[in-house]
Amino acid sequence: MAKKSSKSKPSGDLQLGRDVEWPDTPEKAKLDRVPNPQAGTDYLVRFTVPEFTSICPVTGQPDFAHLVIDYVPGRFLLESKSLKLFAASFRNHGAFHEDCTVLIGRRIADEIKPKWLRIGGYWYPRGGIPIDVFFQTGRLPKGIWVPDQAVAPYRGRG
């Protein structure tokens, strides 16, 4: 079957509502978009991925993060099942925290072309040091309310 253009995806091309194979790498993962039924209105969408995992590229040990993705949609919305599959594809992916966080933000921005996107990657300690990574595209449109990401700084036993 011929590959369809990514400009507009008919519902039959979406992963939503059907069994799909779990992607084993971020490169193989497909992010789906759907038309924004409120395209004439600016508003904020938030996805939270509280149990994100990847692999340390040096030690091979698992790394854990709490991701918060905020975006102001344009013509498209990010379909949540595809985001879940994309996030899961990092479970065996070896990359530093900074690379994972920025890669996710860029992939989403490239696919859905939001008016604005921000991702906060709140990583649990590696070598005793927690690392928080933030990436955003462009400027926030005027009049948009963006709640605090509400992820407390890592405090250990403090």
From TrEMBL:
Substrate binds at residues 78-80, 97-98. One of its GO terms (cellular component) is cytoplasm. Its main location: cytoplasm. GO terms for biological process: tRNA queuosine(34) biosynthetic process. It catalyses: 7-aminomethyl-7-carbaguanine + 2 NADP(+) = 7-cyano-7-carbaguanine + 2 NADPH + 3 H(+). Residues 1-35 are annotated as: Disordered. One of its GO terms (molecular function) is preQ1 synthase activity. The active site is at 56 (thioimide intermediate), 63 (proton donor). Its EC number is 1.7.1.13. Pathway: tRNA modification; tRNA-queuosine biosynthesis. Pfam families: QueF (PF14489). It is an enzyme of class 1 (oxidoreductase). Belongs to the GTP cyclohydrolase I family. QueF type 1 subfamily. This is NADPH-dependent 7-cyano-7-deazaguanine reductase.
